[in-house]
Task: structure prediction
Amino acid sequence: MAKKVVIGLSGGVDSSVAAYLLRQQGYEVEAMFMQNWHDATGTLHGDCPWKDDLTVAQLVAKQLDIPFHFIDLSAPYRQKVIDYMFAEYARGRTPNPDVLCNREIKFDVFLKACLALGADYVGTGHYCRRDAIAVAGRSVHRLLAGSDPNKDQSYFLCQLSQQQLGKALFPIGHLLKPEVRQIAAQLGLPTANKKDSQGICFVGKVDLPVFLQQRLKEKKGQIVELPKSIRLPPRSTLAEQAQPYRFSPSDGRCIGEHCGAHFYTVGQRRGLGVGGHVEPLFVVATDVERNVVYVGEGHGHPALSRSALLAPAGEVRWLRPDLAMQPGEQRRCRCRIRYRQPLQQATLHCRSEGVYVAFAEPQRGVTSGQFAAWYDGEELTGSGAIA
Result:
């Protein structure tokens, strides 16, 4: 009997082609559409309304002749992703809702709903690959980068567990994006020329301050510019190098006013509303307690880069538990701290307080709350939220 796969059909081209390929591979395929968000507050007009996506997904399922299901996961999505987002921003951190959505919704709540339908696997349109190897006589699943270097989405799955990965299928991970669109066009699928979705997972592209103002109040404060000549305190130990920079308003000069430090993130360029500079201004630090946003001029501002970061022990997940490090161990790897960032040479140092990532070259915009994901070759082996 053929194995059964429920594909998360989103109304986009990637999941549409993934559904077709799974059926071609001999699986019994059914489709399920997730509705995870109702509120349009802060969303930008015309950004893929979910009702349009639902209609398109239904058309694709009908054309591929596969059963179609609908599920409303808005309650757990709000609890596990949106509430987490607001809590993190309130602390002055910058969360990654896409990573959380995959860990807590797609491969948890949604996966359980698929299994309840009798599925052996859940399929998605992610650009990544999965395989299995034998380790000490047991089968271990590996998460590999997608073959398309411009679309590799393994980073978004960096917090999955072995159990979650073992139930996942990624049928388009070996393809390039143009090849996926070509297949959709050859099949005459209504998603062939549809634009890729952008913004927050299942919410869409948003005006972030407006979106956050649903719960976080505006609070006027100073924008303080730090001079390029600022002397940063010496940092000799790994723990010191991994600490976010802390500044005082007396370290620079006030050049403007903002509406709340919790609306800004390290590395941010837009939305400052301050002119009169030769080079662009970037946020280099925020202080939500004093409600101060610190900025620096130019990509090369010294406060914009750090050579190390810490993923606290409670925030670290080893996708490969057999490769989990013990305190005192160190290991070379390649690491990224944001989606689509080229992999950077680094060394992992495991300590009792967590995993330190020491980069061969200083990194711009290391941001608390984002995820650092580390790789061995093309395999993603673990990750952790940045302190």
Remarks:
- The CA atoms of residues 202 and 275 lie 34 Å apart.
- The longest strand covers residues 354-364.
- Residues 4-125+171-210 form a domain with the Rossmann fold fold (CATH 3.40.50.620).
